[in-house]
Amino acid sequence: KKNNYDKKFSIAHPDATADDNFFLECFENSSEQYRNEIYDIYFGTTFLHRDVTYGETMGVNASPGQYKNLLKIQEKYGIPISLTLNEMVRPIEMIRKDVVKDFVSFIKKYYDDGVRSCTISHTHLMRIGALQEAFPDMDWKNTVNHRITTTQEFVDYVNLGYTTLQLDRNYNRNLKELKRTKEE
Asked: Strands, E, within 45-183: which ranges?
């Protein structure tokens, strides 16, 4: 049965859970209506390159077993999983050519598994376009931590290469500004 909430919610995977199967079991035992409401399931990971670390802002990562179960959910239920690298400390070293090359290889592992959504906070890395070029089918999401609050910021993030924009909640309540954004 279709309802007004179908595909509306992006939910967090409980990466800190010790039992790899906990979320999968809860998910499979949930109602069909609940599963239909889920737009995607996001999970954390961390990129390591010698002295450069860049990951998920909460500091937790999905374990290999949890990731495998998320891939099962994506395949069986058609709910996309979303890689999350939204740390707000964005190392400038991430735009060095050697680091970009290794980061592209890091993302490629997920892309090859069928992941087509990634929340990424590193605006400079997005600006250079290497990720969009390497992964043209990826949905690049900004993080809510960017706090987009104006039409100009909205346009700026689109120009950086983001394909899905998460807006600040005050922006979502500002009908005048949202109308202006729609016109743009």
From this structure: 47-49, 52-54, 81-85, 117-120, 139-141
